[in-house]
Amino acid sequence: MQIKDLLARGRPTFSFEFFPPKTEEAARQLEQTIADLRQLKPTFVSVTYGAGGSTRERTLEIVTRVKRETGIEAMAHLTCVGSTEDDLGGVLSRICGAGLENVLALRGDPPKGEAEFRATEGGFRYAGELVKFIRARHNSTLCVGGACYPEKHPECGNPAVDLMNLKKKVDEGLDFVITQLFFNNQHYFEFVERARKIGIMVPIVAGIMPITNASQVERFMVACGATIPFELGEELDRRRDDPQAVMELGIAHATAQCIELLEHGAPGIHFYTLNRSTATREIYAALHSTGFTES
Questions:
Q1: HSE (CB half, 13 Å, CA atoms) of 97?
Q2: pLDDT tens figures, 152-163
Q3: pLDDT over 90 for what percent of the chain?
Q4: What is the tens place of the pLDDT at every residue in 82-93?
Q5: Cys-Cys crosslink for 127: which of 78, 107, 136, 157, Cβ 3.0 to 4.6 Å?
Q6: Catalytic site residue 17?
Q7: Which of the following CATH numbers is that of domain 3-289: 3.65.10.10, 3.20.20.220, 3.40.30.10, 3.40.50.300?
Q8: Which of 1, 203, 205, 202 is nearest to 101 (CA)?
Q9: Of 17, 73, 101, 151, which one is the catalytic site residue?
Q10: What is the pLDDT of residue 227?
Q11: Where are the domains of the chain?
């Protein structure tokens, strides 16, 4: 089923994001996480995508297996990094051949060691070009999602320019967008308001990353341009050497975020799980107890 149709039901969606494991131990951890989170009956799951090689293959393998073996709707991430049009066309054909109906179209991050993104010869420079390519080849056969940045893309100096870039991408054929992680809901609410004012009318799903490790989340914040409320940052710093205390803080904050977001009309919550299930399961249980999730 296409995610746009799931979003159109009028009930909040709950989705989980995984990344392809690079070691056997990580693969076992992911298997356990998927098994744990499967019991929560998510609306869909997504799997991130590497620039070629085994990571790309694992993405396709995982989304295909999740769809076939669990019946949960699955979405493959697809990026422009290191790929020509022909490469991307081949991946899209495999996605459709596997019975998958959903793709998250992204530009992708620069490869490690490179300061800025450079398009592969014969490939694409922007996610909007990838969206247009998918629409031209597969039209409505695929539901296409994209990414957005409530606090603007870290490579863009002007929030208004960043928002107009999103508008162009949506106009190329996006069905919905998922936000980058954020820790202050006001950033989301203000972003949605600005987006609606310039004609971006697709669902804007809130991306939430429960804090489970202080140093790790700080690295993510730097990479994606997210900020943290002062009081939360202060408390996180006090607890940083106590993993259990950090986990408890992260779960409490993310739970409060989700409740407020859903109360104010967010169409869905997309959890960045980092291939771990504990925090997401506890947050989901809290949301269930307050009546936001289905039985």
A1: 8
A2: 998 888 999 999
A3: 74
A4: 899 999 999 999
A5: 107
A6: yes
A7: 3.20.20.220
A8: 1
A9: 17
A10: 95
A11: 3-289
